[in-house]
Design brief:
Elements: E1 10-13, H1 23-33, E2 37-39, H2 48-58, E3 64-66, H3 86-102, E4 107-109, H4 121-140, E5 145-148, H5 164-174, E6 179-184, H6 185-190, H7 195-202, E7 206-211, H8 228-236, E8 243-245, H9 258-264
Parallel strand pairs: 1-2, 1-8, 3-4, 4-5, 5-6, 6-7, 7-8
Length: about 260
């Protein structure tokens, strides 16, 4: 595996990596390990000024984060597609953008949510498009991008936006130029897609990329995904962003970083 042009564009997902450490230390640990950026889905329990201090001391930018997604222990995975949560969802938009702006972050992900039993798919879809557009219009005022991440059933059962092609359809349907795709190679492969082919087909929509190997969702090189064609496709289409490393370390974060050194050589 060769990272090529992306060897200095790796982002450490600190919701998955360095979890051996308190959150306050993870960004610095990621920078020390060679990551040039970081990401995390939910930092709201800590005041923005404090998180901004962690980032400044680590010397890395926060590439992407999320809008509030609810209580995972209750099965909540976002609200953007849920008709009975529209008021709550919309009430979180401006406060989240205020918070994220203080961190210098420019990409935010509103999770769609889990499909309620008996819900009409058409109503969920209509709600999602309306709410995605609402977030996009608010973000555009601040020069921010709203990203859509499709998440397959192997990771979240009954997630509303469960396929990359569905995400592409939503992005095109609302027609906002600041709504882009978070392309996750792991989810793509799990759903039976060819990630390199999808990259080439939908390159203009891709704002961020994440990787993990399959099966296991561990670090690259531990399972079956061929990453070279993925990196080659990204380079061929001129992808200029970061590669987010969103994987569960097989045996501890530090112990699993050898793939980065080998792939960058």
């Amino acid at each position: 595996m060769k990272l090529g042009a992306f060897s200095d564009r790796l982002s450490g997902h600190c919701g998955f990596l360095f979890t051996e450490l308190p959150l306050s230390e993870r960004f610095a640990a990621a920078a020390k390990a060679g990551f040039r950026a970081v990401e995390h889905p939910n930092l709201f329990a800590t005041p923005a000024a404090e998180v901004a201090g962690w980032l400044a001391r680590a010397g890395v930018p926060l590439i992407q984060t999320g809008f509030p997604a609810g209580d995972a222990s209750k099965g909540e995975k976002g609200f953007a597609a849920l008709p009975d949560k529209v008021a709550y969802y919309r009430s979180t938009i401006e406060p989240t953008l205020d918070y994220v702006e203080q961190l210098g972050c420019r990409m935010v992900h509103p999770m769609a949510g889990v499909r309620p039993a008996g819900a009409e798919p058409a109503r969920l879809w209509e709600t999602y498009l309306d709410n995605l557009a609402f977030a996009a219009d608010a973000a555009k005022v601040r020069g921010m991008t709203v990203i859509v991440e499709p998440i397959g059933p192997g990771s979240i059962a009954d997630y509303v936006i469960d396929d990359p092609l569905k995400a592409v359809e939503a992005i095109r349907a609302i027609g906002r130029d600041n709504v882009k795709l978070l392309f996750d190679a792991y989810h793509c492969v799990c759903l039976g897609h060819d990630p390199a082919a999808l990259i080439r087909a939908h390159a203009p929509l891709i704002a961020h990329v994440q990787i993990a190997d399959d099966p296991g969702r561990h670090e690259p090189g531990t399972a079956t995904i061929a990453f070279d064609p993925i990196f080659e496709a990204l380079e061929a289409v001129g992808y200029a962003g970061f590669i987010g490393c969103e994987y569960h370390p097989a045996a501890g974060t530090e112990a699993g970083l050898g793939w980065m050194r080998a792939a960058s050589a």
